[in-house]
Amino acid sequence: GLKAHYIAMVHAARLMVPRGKGLIVTISSVGSQTYAFTPAYGIGKAGLDRMMKDCGLELKNFNVTSLAIVPNGARTEIFNDILREIEEKIRQGVVLTQPEKDTYKLFKENGESCELTGKGVVHLSADQNI
Asked: Which terminal residue of the chain has fewer beta carbons within 10 Å of its beta carbon, N or C?
């Protein structure tokens, strides 16, 4: 959860600040900005985004960048399972709840591969201006 991310951030910063450079990246979720799955999920992701932003401000003077990448609905195995469950409900004629409709739209129509985010992180880490 958020506490584990914070502890990892502290340890990473302790290594990077003396070197005078570094990049700390976390993968967040659109659930930080809109409803996805449960309130606890969204609250945790929003807290993570805020932590990365605030730590980025504190680490900037040490040339350490901290940021959260927010994929547009990464199509992980778990989310593919959720999509299949929702599609089964649709086939059975079950009326979907609004959160189910929103989740389906997010991941079915706008989902992206996990590899896309990974490639973005690789390019960020190679950028000498970050």
From this structure: N
6 is catalytic: no
Name the nearest CA neighbour of 50 among 73, 33, 38.
Answer: 33
H/E element, 66: strand 64-69
Residue entry with tokens 């900037």: 60
Read out DSSP for 79-120?
Answer: HHHHHHHHHHHHHTTPPPPHHHHHHHIIIIIH-B-HHHHHHH
Note whether 65 and 9 are within 8 A (CB).
Answer: no
Q: How confident is the model at residue 52 (pLDDT cuts 50, 70, 90)?
A: very high
Question: How many Cβ atoms from other residues are within 10 Å of residue 55's Cβ?
Answer: 22
